[in-house]
Every structure is written in structure tokens, then in C-alpha cells.
Design goal:
Rossmann fold; about 15% strand; alpha/beta; 11 helices
């Protein structure tokens, strides 16, 4: 299942970021490494050697310039948006669209004070619940899992079933998802989010349509383009992080 593989890939990136000395890390994530499959855990084990970590990061930088640094910055930015929103009491709810193996619901300070909806494909939700249940011993009450196929099911319907109310001031997190679903699914989600209570926010990543179409691809990112082109759907979004 592509969604699960993508989720573990992001967990690997987060676990990689945790290999750096504390004073050099951009974020803290105590759970992502524990979620990894044996394949990814093996690489993390090898990368505990500073020389191997440096070698692999240089290789990634050569094949996909800036990709790891961008992901680390994206992780930190979204963490900060969530932390600040909770600290300032700006939100009552989080809806994580395409939550994957994201562990923010389990380690962000005071996260238990709000309702946190993890929305993703049924196969991903099943895997996530099993793994987090094993890690934590018991799944926390503030986390509500919402299985959905964005291409076939209504976000409004499935969130209502799970107990979410659009009148609740909400932070929507939509990270690393838009390029994997159709334009129609993206449009539907945006229209739904637009109905949220005043003061609600959305932080999301997207990929430029010109990148998907192969326009203006300079030499430094040709390898990354060929790799990503096999996985993305031409929805017209761009891989940056924004807060609205």
C-alpha cells in the first residue's frame, strides 16, 4: 500500500533528524523510530555512526538537493504552529488529514487538552493504531482515528461519524498528501476546510504543477523529479509549507 510506505518514509526522515546531537536538532520526536519497519530500523542503526550518517546525507543531497533539509524545516514549522496554537489557546481541535505515521498527537506538550482527529486510509489507520497501542500500552482518549479513502468517501460524512463538529475552532494539518490524491479530492477537501469555524487555520504542503509537468527542471533536481514523478498525481500543488 503506497500510503503506508509513504508514511514510513516520513517516519524514517524524522528518525534521521533525531540522530543529530540535541543542540543541532530542529525538532524532537521520541516515537517515529519505534514505528519503523525492520528495513528502515536497520538503516537508522547504521546511521548512528556519524560517518555513515554524513555519507548518506551527502548522497541524498546529491540526488535530491535540499530535500532532507526542507523536510526537517517543514517538520519543525508544523510542530511550532501546533505548539503555539495550543499554548495561546487558539484552537480546540486538530484534524490531521493524511496523518500517516505522524506522532504529534502523542508528544506535543499539552496535546491531550484538545481533540485530535487522525484521518487516513483504513489500512494506514489499522497499522497506526496497532503500532501506537503497542508502544504506549494504551491509546490516549484525546486521539480519534478516522479511516477514509479521500478519492471515494466524503470527509464531511466521515468526520461527523467520528464526532467532529465544524463549529470547533480547528487547526487542519495537511502534510505531504496533496500530491498523492486527485485534483477533485484536493478541491473537495479545500471546500470543506473553508467551512470551518472563524479563527480556524490550515497548514499544508503542495507541489507546483510545473514541477509535475517537467517544466523548468534544472540539472540539480532531475534525479529527484524522475523519482517523484512516478508517485505523484497532477493535482497542481507545490511542495512548500503554508499556513492560512
Amino acid at each position: 500500500m503506497k500510503a503506508i510506505k509513504t508514511g514510513f518514509g516520513v517516519s524514517w526522515a524524522r528518525a534521521t533528524g533525531m540522530l543529530y546531537p540535541k543542540e543541532k536538532r530542529l525538532f524532537e520526536d521520541p516515537y517515529s523510530e519505534k514505528l519503523l519497519t525492520p528495513f528502515y530500523k536497520f538503516f537508522i542503526f547504521l546511521m548512528r555512526s556519524p560517518k555513515i550518517l554524513d555519507s548518506i546525507m551527502k548522497s541524498k543531497e546529491k540526488s535530491s538537493p535540499g530535500s532532507m533539509g526542507w523536510m526537517f524545516c517543514r517538520f519543525r514549522y508544523i510542530d511550532d504552529v501546533l505548539k503555539n496554537s495550543i499554548t495561546k489557546k487558539e484552537i480546540e481541535t486538530v484534524v490531521n488529514l493524511g496523518a500517516g505515521m505522524d506522532c504529534r498527537a502523542y508528544y506535543i506538550p499539552s496535546i491531550e487538552s484538545i481533540s485530535y482527529f487522525e484521518v487516513d486510509h483504513p489500512s494506514v489507520i489499522k497499522t497506526k493504531k496497532a503500532k501506537m497501542g503497542k508502544i504506549l500500552g494504551k491509546l490516549p482518549n484525546h486521539v480519534i482515528f478516522v479511516p477514509i479513502d479521500f478519492e471515494k468517501q466524503s470527509l464531511d460524512t466521515e468526520l461527523k461519524k467520528a464526532g467532529y463538529n465544524l463549529t470547533s475552532k480547528t487547526l487542519f494539518i495537511w502534510e505531504g498528501v496533496t500530491q498523492y490524491i486527485s485534483k477533485e479530492a484536493n478541491d473537495s477537501i479545500m471546500k470543506y476546510v473553508a467551512q470551518a469555524a472563524p479563527g480556524s487555520k490550515i497548514v499544508f504542503t503542495y507541489i507546483l504543477k510545473s514541477f509535475i509537468e517537467g517544466k523548468n527542471i534544472h540539472d540539480g533536481i532531475k534525479v529527484m523529479y524522475k523519482h517523484m514523478r512516478k508517485k505523484i498525481i497532477p493535482s497542481g500543488f507545490m511542495a512548500w509549507t503554508r499556513l492560512i
